[in-house]
Amino acid sequence: MKINKSGAKLSAIVSIGEKLRQLSKETGKQHLLLNRGVPSVVNIDLQEVIKTIDFNCSELQTYPPAQGRLDLRSAINVEFFAGKSTPAKIFITGGGMSALDLAFQTVDVDKILLPVYYWGAYFHIMTIRHKQVGEYDSFAELEGMLPLLKNSAVVIGDPGNPLGEKYDDEKLFSLVKKLNDNGTVVFFDSPYRRIFYDSTDDFYQRLLPLDNVIIVESFSKSVGLSGQRIGFLHSNNEAFNAEVAVRLMYATNGINAFSQMLVLRLLTTEAGKKAVTSFRQATIADVKKNVEYLRKRGFLAEEFYKSSAPVGIFAVVNLSEQELLQYYIGSVSLSFFTKSRKEQAAKYARICISVPHGELISYFDSIPHKNQ
Question: pTM value?
Fold first, then answer.
């Protein structure tokens, strides 16, 4: 049969994970899997939350609404937007990647710009959707490019992946507003933000008046539900929302009803809120300890955080993937996350720092101190 080839490739991170599992089997030495991209300090404790769900109810045994359950979209409006948006502008998706694919394929722009160091899935989704890719090095560079970005889009993630960089919110909002006012579409993809912030965070509310901003969110990271594959899109643009509603319907025919009910319980019940709070507190505590440890030992690649702070679940270290492997530590070469700086990036590795602090130091303590 004839095949329409996408030109995209499967994730290199998956093959790295397979390699590490094989090495652990061959050597009998368990490797520390910092190549993964999910919060792993603790699992969210769902025992009490599950007790509140009636698995025999009709809501779990019929097709869910194509746009998502109204009560869940209403809860998201309260949790993320303090009730200042409307459920009609929120679309439940099959995780963040599905949301990004819907957004990228729906918006008609000449080019989509990514940071110089970017999550690889962005590029592959754009390849499949035949989108032209550009890049930017900094916020200042983007501001200088405004006249050239009239019919373009920009992807902004904060905290980012792979660097784990977090920018000052005022600088971040100022840039997003300038892009919006310029007529440039902004895909604001920030699935790690809500690990470190709660419903008192008003950043999403501040984005509401900006008609060229599309918010992409995922519950994989913020409440530790990677396995449930659920996220959402938010936009003010009526034409975008009308088209996304059609594409979402025929791509999914509704997102898994159980995952929607589970997230609803996490956002609205006492047991759910307690579980989320405990998960976030444990995650934040060990991520901070891990950053402080890497910095103290001289392993943190400080050159990537001159205008930002290492806040997310990832960090870049000044050791290569192969150097870390000598100490039974799995990572991903930073060269996998860039097109234009591969040679320079190969000297560094991206690691997931959302792992138990004691586990991380038990491996890194064996590495000689790195002089900066």
Answer: 0.94
